[in-house]
């Protein structure tokens, strides 16, 4: 029996595969695990019928056969696998996933010396995020650096490795992608998509509140991203304005997988860890009664309320008072809140997770709410719905959409004090290094 590592599954689903001899089409369950594509007769089978190993010589392309939504994977000169997806969107997802893995096999090792540091973009408890340019290219990225010593002291090493693993498993238009990861004795580095429009938090602080149409598109794109994570049995757990970025066209990208929880379906009572940003925490997190995917839909409700009204629905500078409001205070709206938006938010902010919208059919019940009746979800996924707001970006290195508190800092790769580094067991970080796609932000659209 082949052992599949669930943490290395980047995509799975049913496809129709053409037979090698009789050319008949049969439904098979495909699993992209690491750099091998396995296929099974049923999604419950433990032993695959076959496997397609990906190498740097593998190619994938849209098939020119008459059957709809087909693509071909060529392994070597003579071996070609022809498979068909149920929709063009699904086919595109498979092609993107396979291409990204092929690219990761051909890229050379990178280090901090391969990047020119341009500016600081943000700072957190364990490190900072900086705008960097890859030497010898016009590609710009966001470089997240984390102090190993601080991670060790706070017992965050395992969660940081999990963050990197989730980056490897995911490939979605509304999620930030990991391009490279590497390390020194003192730090971990993740080279990520540079999303030049800045945080939603920055823009809401400038504008006080967003229009209903603007909130609707942001919410729809967030839903597709969270839906994708949930299908991979991942809870995001940190949905907030600071973790949602805008690209140069005004579409969102969710970043920071530092609090994700994987393999949630394997745990009967969910998880009980108290984590996240207090204003966005669902009641069941505070009560420590065990929670699962509905906590992300609660956070979506808080986000939508905050974007429409300008403040979170439950707020207090006193933590105990804030928690009591989340647990007991009825939800109130200003009189000018759009009716359909109000109805959706009320259903997302039901305190009982079993009655909350999204608790039974996950994203489907939310997507079917009348608030989104004007949207074709395939068009949302393909970014065919134009945002009503587009960030003003003069050039690639324009960092005016990021907080001046951070951008005024001097960029660089500082060496932590010996006392902060401590005696970190370097073996704890084995396997962190990764080389992926070579594409970055090379021009403004």
Please provide a brief summary of the model.
The chain is of the alpha+beta class. The protein has 13 helices and 15 strands. The protein folds into three domains: 99 residues, Pleckstrin-homology domain (PH domain)/Phosphotyrosine-binding domain (PTB) (PH-domain like); 121 residues, 2-Layer Sandwich (Phosphorylase Kinase, domain 1), CATH 3.30.200; 182 residues, Transferase(Phosphotransferase), domain 1 (Orthogonal Bundle), CATH 1.10.510.10.
Largest sheet: number of strands, sense, barrel closure: 7 strands, antiparallel
Alpha-carbon distance between the termini? 48 Å
Helix count from the secondary structure assignment: 13
Strand content: 15-25%
Corresponding CATH architecture of the largest domain = Orthogonal Bundle
Looking at CATH, which topology of the largest domain would you report?
Transferase(Phosphotransferase), domain 1
Number of structural domains = 3
CATH superfamily of the largest domain: Transferase(Phosphotransferase) domain 1
As a percent range, the share of helical residues equals 25-40%
Give the tally of β-strands. 15
Q: Widest sheet: strand order? A: 4-3-2-1-7-6-5
Query: Oligomeric form of this entry?
Result: single chain
Global geometry: globular
List low-pLDDT spans: none
Radius of gyration based on Cα positions:
23 Å
The CATH class label of the largest domain is Mainly Alpha
Run of helices and strands: EEEEEEEHEEEHHEEHHEEHHHHHHHHE
**Mean pLDDT rating:** 87
Structure classification = alpha+beta
Protein name: non-specific serine/threonine protein kinase
Organism: Anaeramoeba ignava
Keywords: ATP-binding, Kinase, Nucleotide-binding, Phosphoprotein, Serine/threonine-protein kinase, Transferase
InterPro entries: AGC-kinase_C (IPR000961), Kinase-like_dom_sf (IPR011009), PH-like_dom_sf (IPR011993), PH_domain (IPR001849), Pkinase_C (IPR017892), Prot_kinase_dom (IPR000719), Protein_kinase_ATP_BS (IPR017441), Ser/Thr_kinase_AS (IPR008271)
């Amino acid at each position: 029996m082949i052992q599949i590592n669930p943490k290395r599954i980047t995509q799975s689903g049913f496809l129709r595969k053409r037979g090698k001899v009789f050319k008949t089409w049969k439904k098979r369950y495909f699993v992209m695990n690491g750099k091998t594509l396995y296929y099974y007769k049923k999604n419950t089978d433990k032993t695959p019928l076959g496997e397609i190993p990906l190498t740097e010589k593998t190619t994938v392309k849209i098939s020119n056969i008459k059957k709809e939504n087909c693509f071909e994977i060529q392994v070597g000169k003579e071996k070609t696998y022809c498979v068909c997806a149920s929709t063009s969107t699904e086919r595109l997802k498979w092609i993107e996933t396979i291409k990204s893995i092929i690219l990761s096999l051909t890229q050379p090792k990178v280090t901090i010396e391969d990047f020119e540091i341009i500016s600081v973009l943000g700072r957190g408890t364990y490190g900072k995020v900086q705008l960097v340019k890859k030497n010898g290219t016009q590609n710009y990225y966001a470089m997240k650096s984390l102090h190993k010593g601080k991670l060790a002291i706070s017992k965050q090493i395992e969660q940081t490795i999990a963050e990197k693993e989730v980056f490897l498993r995911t490939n979605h238009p509304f999620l930030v992608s990991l391009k490279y990861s590497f390390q020194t004795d003192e730090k971990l580095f993740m080279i990520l998509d540079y999303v030049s429009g800045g945080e939603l938090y920055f823009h809401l602080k400038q504008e006080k509140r967003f229009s209903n149409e603007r909130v609707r598109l942001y919410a729809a794109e967030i839903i597709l991203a969270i839906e994708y994570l949930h299908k991979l049995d991942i809870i995001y757990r940190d949905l907030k304005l600071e973790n949602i970025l805008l690209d140069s066209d005004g579409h969102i990208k969710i970043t920071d997988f530092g609090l994700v929880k994987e393999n949630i379906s394997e745990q009967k009572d969910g998880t009980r860890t108290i984590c996240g940003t207090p204003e966005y925490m669902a009641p069941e997190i505070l009560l420590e009664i065990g929670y699962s995917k509905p906590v992300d839909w609660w956070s979506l409700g808080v986000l939508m309320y905050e974007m429409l009204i300008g403040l979170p629905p439950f707020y207090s500078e006193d933590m105990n008072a804030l928690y009591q409001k989340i647990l007991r205070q009825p939800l109130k709206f200003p009189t000018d809140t759009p009716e359909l938006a109000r109805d959706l938010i009320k259903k997302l902010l039901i305190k009982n997770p079993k009655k909350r919208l999204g608790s039974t059919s996950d994203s489907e019940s939310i997507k079917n709410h009348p608030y989104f009746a004007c949207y074709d979800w395939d068009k949302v996924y393909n970014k065919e719905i134009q945002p009503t707001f587009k960030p003003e970006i003069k050039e690639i290195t324009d960092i005016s959409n990021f907080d001046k508190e951070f951008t005024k800092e001097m960029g660089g790769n500082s060496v932590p004090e010996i006392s902060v580094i401590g005696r970190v067991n370097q073996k704890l970080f084995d396997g962190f290094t990764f080389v992926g796609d070579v594409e970055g932000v090379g021009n403004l659209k």
